[in-house]
Amino acid sequence: MKLQLFALLALYVLVFFDTSTSYGQTIMPGTSVDEVVLVGYSRSLEQEGWSCVSSKFKGKEGEWINRTLEYRFKWINETVRFDQDESSKISIRVSSDVLEVGKETWFRRYTGGNTMYQIRYYDNVSLILSNCIDGVNVLQPCSFWVKKQYLNNITQLAKANFTELCNETQFVGYEPEACKP
């Protein structure tokens, strides 16, 4: 009797979980209206001279979410000093555990960005994206995004997932005062 009750409970949980995640859009940083900021990434994703990377919600078109990707680019050498804030439009959509970036843009070509990213972890505050997984034991390069208003409240679980699931991680932080235009 206990086994049948447990099996029925397991079936209920499976059906509830399947239906609750199959309908509507998954709410996470990146799909919400909140501004998200880049606070960490794998060393292989580092772009020299880039800082203050953030993304702001701009609206929805069907299942696509329109956002801006904003960043500061600073380049200094012996003869040239370049310090400029830039912005690029992106469209994303989330299905299951994949975040898809729509439309080919000069920005994606320039940075070598992918069209699909694996969602490795998310909660109400943070989001970890990686290249699509090749194998269980293969660590992929990742990016670690946090809702701007929660910069000082990143959970230990999110930080631990970032360091455990991704290769050569580094926390770069985000200083709102230093990133003002």
Automatic annotation (TrEMBL):
<dbReference type="InterPro" id="IPR012674">
    <property type="entry name" value="Calycin"/>
</dbReference>
<protein>
    <submittedName>
        <fullName>Putative group viii salivary lipocalin</fullName>
    </submittedName>
</protein>
<feature type="signal peptide">
    <location>
        <begin position="1"/>
        <end position="24"/>
    </location>
</feature>
<keyword id="KW-0732">Signal</keyword>
